[in-house]
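Listing S7. Sequence submitted for prediction.
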Amino acid sequence: MAVLAVLATGPGVVEGGGRPALDPLDLALVRGDAVFEALRVYAGRPFRLDAHLDRLARSAEAIDLPLPGDLEDLATRAVAAAGGGDAVLRLICTRGREGSGEGGPAAFAICTDIPGSLEEERRRGLRLVLLTTATDPLVRAASPWLLPGVKTISYAGNMAAQRAARARGADDAVLVGLGGELLEAPTANLWWRTGHTLHTPSLDLGVLAGITRTVLRELAPGLGLKVLEGVFTAEDLAAADEAFLSSSTREIMPVIEVDGAPVADARPGPAAADLQSALRRLATTAPA
């Protein structure tokens, strides 16, 4: 991953090596106490930046983290410094040092290049495994101190799930609740199609309210598809005509296999392709 630009603001920023850096005692490092967003930049235009900033603010509110001002300007300047092409923009907001009275919150805007593997993965489709979380998602969703649907940088569990999936010969995982409820992938929302209906787990289960998830809900009717949110199990997914993941960085990623069993004919499906085309059109032509 190539870093194209790094900009930062706030009293918790330190300078070193020609780039702004994080105080080594910042709670983001010592406790994972920070929030973030990641979004695609198309030809120098961040897609749905306002929606990402709104979600960042909700995440920060959930953990009582004060945000530095003018994050939109910071993001805009980072994109310009990256050269105005295609990129992934990450916004990370940290709490600062614990109890010292020194420093304070910091915000970083980091632009990196687009992972080169994404288009090949989209062409062939992903193999997934189901991993049980051993938690009741409805209880978790009703427990705000467990931060359901909050986008903090505490992603160690998510990354462990992806490593477990790869150790089993898969590309990614889908997390499953204690009662068999399908939830989400570690860094993406889960979808599948039966007939003309797209299914996706309900936000009431504590899954992340993905920005791309919202975009797909907007695009689906124009493609002759309706969207059904609810509580679903592996049996529902097994009966699908196709399946896919959605995220801001990876866009639409078809799924061809779950737990070693093919999804339909084990090929990327037409709805995923249509939604990917519609998403790309929207992102490259509509106002950001």
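Caption to Listing S7: primary sequence and predicted structure tokens for the chain studied. Residues 132 and 176 are 5 Å apart (CA to CA). The longest strand covers residues 34-42.
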